[in-house]
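## retry 2 of 3
previous attempt timed out at serialization; input unchanged, resubmitting
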Amino acid sequence: MPAETRAPAKLALTAVCLGFLMITLDATIVNLALPAIGADFGEPSTAALQWVVDAYTVTLAAFLLTWGAAGDRWGSRRVFEVGVAVFVLASIACALAGSAAWLIAARAVQGAGAAALLPSSLALIVHQFPDPRERARALGVWGGMSGAGLAAGPVLGGLAVGLADWRLVFAVNVPVGIVAIVLTRRAVTEPPRHASTRLDLAGQLTGTASLACLVAGFIESGHAGWLAPLTLTLLAGGVVAGVVFVTVERRVPDPVLPLGVLRIRNFAVATGIGGLFNFCLYGTLFSLALYLQRAWSLGALAAGLALVPLTMAVGLNAFFSGRLTGRFGARVPMIAGAVAGFAGSVGFALLPADRSLVAFVLVSVVFGCCSLAMPAMTSLAMNSLPDKAGLAAGVLNASRQTGGAIGVALVGALLPATGMWLVAGGYALVVVLALLGRQSS
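## retry succeeded, writing output
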């Protein structure tokens, strides 16, 4: 990249990363506020708290594909700005919520805003950094923002709940979003647009219905049992809607998910790893946040501080992964991250019963190295479809958020040790998928 273009590109990267930071910050801030939210609204059940998380994640996953394609058609910068604005307004609604139903609805709107913001942020990075090595480093910074949000979340969430009120965990998004919009309008240039296509309404509806039913089924299984009529009905409905979704996507002229892109090996590998990665990470963070406060009887602030070693490791390794990917390609950091996640999740499953904080911290640091895989998988996916950055970002992140929603629902429905063994299996599958991909930078 020429020297005279580096400063504007870095400022643009800052703007994009600030928008992305809001999304990731909510992951750990909200988890630690869940017991306080439940107590405030008289909703102590795990199922209600799971919906506070998954109402956001389901709508985020459901609309990513549509907004990814919209960014290609209408301009990624415009879609990014709309996404940030919607996210900020929904955050205000969350902070003002007077009931659990209000909060869950506002969280769903938050997810819709994040769905516009997330794929467009990746498309803007691809445009601002055309050189593959510079792009890999930029994606490392972008991925590091995820780690920074995860790392700051426990401390900010614990401080908000312990010293003030859980509503502050949503209000913190407002100044960050305003700064992101201001910097975007000053420094970010608009990528070329593609020809307009028709909206795949049938695909959008069936895809959303499939994901919502599956997540609801997993959540219902946690308190009603796997063989309960409602659980079976929801899971069966999710499978049927998924089959209809695939059938629709094969027949419509402008599908929300062009199935042909999944025949590109590296892109399919990155997409699969993305889903598994978020399944494991989101499920673990949700489970640990409740475990520390319920089983260990820690307050919100103490639980947040206990999670700092894990989230700091996630942030630092995500930044480091960008440099590794730029130098050695995506496979090495993806496998290294998966092995660390596997070892850490096994460690969590085998933690001694004496509530040893030292053992918990050591296992947390090992587990946090899983983020070596995150920027690497993103780089692999974006380099596989460089001329369709919005679509690539939409598909990858739809897979990631789908995995995250199912992870919160399924891992959260199991006993902590059982859930950690399931997470270990997920990381083992990541290793297999990474070995299937062609080496690429």
